[in-house]
């Protein structure tokens, strides 16, 4: 495809992940053709020398930093060292080497877990670092806070235009459906699907079902990311401040985990009982983002939760079918 004149050379870090793949879809839909991607095998982002060589040779104009090690409560509790080390190394290498190579525009994607566990609701951007974090994902949250401050520090010292967006809980095509290491919606979609297929009389959900969560369809998140990246400098600066330059991205609405489980069950077509195991951790009681700043800048989410869940389940079924076909093609094991 022929590239347009003055087309920016855009690097999407983490293009195979949930958010990165959605950002690539949005960029392509908007007519961008000069998009640079690298798989984990092609570029190890925790290796500074590899990242430095990449930026030295690729002449990147814009960076979407969507690469991250992510997971749910179980994964965060089980691999805290990996969650803090991998994420801090990726962020430090990409931001620093982008600056060294003269990249002026970068968008860092964080997480709403950066906010205090008992923050006032809805959560405003200035609540950052005003309380104790949720213990179950503190290492990951600390890494994401460091990423925000990294961008702010380079802006202050070097005059770069590095911005940060903080999404609420995301879901949609490209999600991780691992039975133990995935987030709540993909985990529930898989669990209800398997329960329906196996005729299970009940599905057991971790926790009491009372915590409230906000969920954003990933293509909405990608659209918001591109929107924020392309805001004029003076507009972005007028709606943020140097010490809280990040912007929340969400729907402004939340549901209980019990309500979510019921909705997922309906989406999948499961007819059994839903049981909550209150002996398991609930995590943060409530986490609803204040999205008034982004709304004032002219952007709002457009995908209702029911519609997003339907699309997410369709994507899960497609992925499940591909994996099943691949498993059927595997040669049978030969007994020794």
What does this structure look like?
The protein is built from 11 helices and 13 strands. The protein has 336 residues and is an alpha/beta fold. It has a domain of 221 residues: NAD(P)-binding Rossmann-like Domain (Rossmann fold). Helix 4 packs parallel to helix 5, helix 6 packs across helix 9 and helix 9 packs across helix 11. The radius of gyration is 20 Å and the shape is globular.
Main attributes of the structure:
336 residues, multifunctional enzyme, three-stranded mixed β-sheet, GDP-L-fucose synthase, Rossmann fold, six-stranded parallel β-sheet, 13 strands, Epimerase_deHydtase
Write the layout of secondary structure elements.
Blueprint: E1 10-13, H1 18-29, E2 35-36, H2 48-58, E3 62-65, H3 73-78, H4 80-100, E4 105-109, H5 138-158, E5 161-167, E6 169-171, H6 184-198, E7 202-206, E8 212-213, E9 215-217, H7 218-229, H8 233-238, E10 247-249, E11 255-256, H9 257-268, E12 273-277, E13 286-287, H10 292-296, H11 305-329
Parallel strand pairs: 1-2, 1-3, 3-4, 4-5, 5-10, 6-9, 7-12, 8-13
Antiparallel strand pairs: 8-11
Helix pairs in contact: 1-7, 2-4, 4-5, 6-9, 6-11, 9-11
